[in-house]
C-alpha cells in the first residue's frame, strides 16, 4: 500500500525529492573553477533558495544538463 502511495505522489508531481540536487560547496565559496555545465553539482543563482546544501531543480533543466532535447528555454 505504501508503494502505491509513493507512486501516486510521484505521478501527481507532489514528491520533488528526486529533483533535488546537491549544491557545489566550492561554488558556494566562489572557488569552483568548473563551468556549471561541467560540474556534477548544482551552481544555483543567488536568488535560488538553498536548503541543507540542496536545491530543487526544474525537470527541464535536468534534461538540458544531461543533453536531452527539451522545450525549456
UniProtKB/TrEMBL annotation:
Alphabetized UniProt keyword annotations: Metal-binding, Repeat, Zinc, Zinc-finger
Top-level lineage group: Eukaryota
UniProt keyword Iron-sulfur present: no
C3H1-type domain span: 18-46
PROSITE patterns the record matches: ZF_C3H1
Record family assignment: Belongs to the muscleblind family.
UniProt-recorded name of the protein: C3H1-type domain-containing protein
Species of provenance: Aedes albopictus
